[in-house]
Every structure is written in structure tokens, then in C-alpha cells.
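Sat 14:20. Reprocessing the chain from the morning session after the first attempt stalled halfway. Input below, unchanged.
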Amino acid sequence: MLLPGGRVVTCSADNEFADLFRALPNSYGTLGYILRAKIRLEPAKPFVELAITRYDEVGAYLEAMRQAAETDDIDFVEGLFFEDGRYYLKCGRLRDSLSDVDDILRRDIYYKLVQTRDVIRLKTLDYIFRYDPEWFWNIPDTPFYSLFRRFAPEKYRNSAFYTRHIARDKRIRAKLGFQPKQTEPLIQDWEVPWENAEELMHCCLTEVDLGGLPWAALPIKTPHQPTIYPIEADRLYFNLGCYCQVARPEGKAPYYYTRLMDDKCFELDGIKMLYSSTFLDQAEFDRRFNGTAYAALKAKYDPAGNAPTLFEKVSMS
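Finished this time. C-alpha cells:
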């Protein structure tokens, strides 16, 4: 680790810097930067076969997802669901070989394919980046983009390119005097204890309008409790994700849906990831993200304040 003051240390779970080791997840570079790491890898195979099951009731959907998460021979468990009451569970298994592999870079749109198939077969690399060619589900479904999907060089079929393209497009439209649509990003991940999953789903399905786009869901369990991301070790959590531009309700303040879902998540003893917009004040932020322990670490490893605090880096209050 390169500490903010310039010192380089080696930290592990059982040496003198074990407190720093446990605090790295969710620290976003505010305690230093990783220069070199030893990581645990999972063995992989060239292909992934996904079994798709549709459910029409939330309780049955969540129970099936929970059971799948506890089934040893399933390698991947995830879901997509829609506000019209369609819930899709995807259970993936690594395979050494497959025939009729699907092409989600050029031919098929992954999140749409999920809605029409019982089985999807992918290269493992394509599965890992399954949402990237469509920027999740933000690429317009128009004739131009249909051609772009089919023929554009692979280096342009990813979220990094789309992010730059949309930003450039907005700047050009602003200079030409075009009025932008009243939309805003709802790009978030929330996690609540599994027993509160149904209530969180009920909230998003009744209070948030995604315009027909899907929500993403998956079970999460960690073997260790990170200091700054205080979810309990070996406890099953429900992760709810949303990754799209949404129409802001008439008369509502900016980031209305983000604030609404944040409040519900915290009410249900949950926590949110900090890669996107966060609107907590300092006191509430410290309470949610173990601010007392973080302050002690900051004083120990960055006493001169060379790096911003986590709150300073992520808050949009």
C-alpha cells in the first residue's frame, strides 16, 4: 500500500497493518492505494450455461433465489425483474464446452434475451461483461443503434465509450440550444438483510417508475466484515441494482428516486454502495459507514490529511 503521506507498507489479515487491510474495501483510495496484491482466484471454464426461470410472485421468486444461492453446483445466481410482475431467475454453471453459443455482442441484447429463453449459452468472458455492450439497458432501440450493434468495432461496444459519447452529445446539444429531457441518473446498488428483501422490492416496484426497464437483483454473502462497509459476515443479503436514466416525477427535487430508495434501504437496516450519488449528511454518513473506526484509521495512516476523507470524496450533500 502507498499511504497518503508517501510511505509504502505491506498489510495482511494477520500482521501489524491488519486494521488497514480490513478497512480497504469501500475506502476509495482515501487510506492509500494498492500497489501490489495477492488475491484469491476462482477456477473458471470457457463457457457459462444459464438456466432461466420466470416467476410471477415475489415471495416464490425470492425463495427460489435463496435456495439457488445455497446450492453448491450453481456457480452464478442473479435476477432481473420488471414492474409489470415478471421476475427472472438466472442460475449459471461453468462448462468446458457448449454448442450454439449466443452472441450478445452483435446479434442479441442480453437483458432482452433473458425474457425469451429458458437457456442462454455464453463464453465466460461475454458473461462477465454481459451488460457492457448495451451499457446495461441504456442504448436506444433505434435503427441506427441496431446497425451500430451489428457492425461497430468491438472497442466501441462498451460502457466507457458510451459514457464519453453521451457526455459529448450533451455538450453539443447544449451549445445548439436543445432543451434536454427532464431525466436523471438512477445508478445505485442497495443491500438489505435477506428477510427485508421483499419489502425493498415492494418499494421499488410501487414507488419508482423505470419506464419498463428492469431492476437487477442477486444474493450476497461475505466471509468477512469490512470495516467501512459494515455488512455482517456469513449473513445473506439481498442486493438491488438500478442502472439507467429515469424521468424525474413532475414537481420533485433532483435525485428524487435516489433519495427515496436510500431512505427505504436504511430503514430496512441496509447499506448502499458509494460509487454513485450519495446525499447523507456527515453525522448520518458516519453512523452508517462506521465513521468512528474510519476516523481512527485516518488519523493513524493519513495524519496530515493528504487524501480527502471518504465523506468528502463521495458525498453530494
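The beta strands are 47-55, 76-82, 86-95, 119-123, 183-193, 215-220, 237-247, 271-272.
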